[in-house]
Amino acid sequence: MKKLLFSILFLTITVGANAQTNLYENPDFDEIAKSHKKIAVVPFKTQVKLRPKQMKDMSNEQLHKLEKAEGEGIQTAMYSWFLKRKKRGKLLSLEVQDPKVTTALLKRKEIDYDNITDYTPKELADLLEVDAVISGDFETNKPMSEGASVALGVLFGAWGSTNNAVINMTVHNALDGVLLWNYNKKVRGSIGSSPEDLINILMRKASRRLAYTKND
Hints:
By secondary structure, the chain is of the alpha/beta class. The chain has helices at residues 2-19, 29-33, 52-56, 60-87, 99-108, 121-128, 146-156, 195-206; strands spanning 21-25, 38-41, 45-48, 95-96, 132-140, 163-173, 179-189. Helix 4 crosses helix 8 (195-206). It is globular. The protein starts with a helix and ends in a 10-residue tail after the last helix.
């Protein structure tokens, strides 16, 4: 009986763990990535799902600013993650565009956080003059940035031991707009977790399957 219960428990845990991570990898990604010299990360579209009481005391404008800041925070954290790899002597043949450059180039075409999803990954890649674009979606029940978390805790009593976040990251090829890689993962972090913490959690295992980093 104990063995049966243990088996059921193990299966439940295994299924639950697998359900929290989904990966798609284009079979040609490794070969295509060899020709890539420069990539760019654009702001992630973010949705912060607050409780009804919190939403009542926060204006739509405040929520929008919060989500925009979170999305840009993910972009910066992803850029920093790649830079750290380069500083360790890896990714030497790949350049990652500075988010400030990305933002400036997009702004010239009146593209920003609010309307970036109106453009295809190929259109964005052509505009940014890169070989691939990293983009994605981010959903959380609490902001990842410490300042926002503290503010919510003080204003709305939003304290809790953890926050749940789902991040969906994609890599699209500039030449034809084809999806090369998609990684969807649910993570849990503590109040005060930074976007950088989230990206480190995300990329810890994902980097083993990402063509740019799997062999470095």
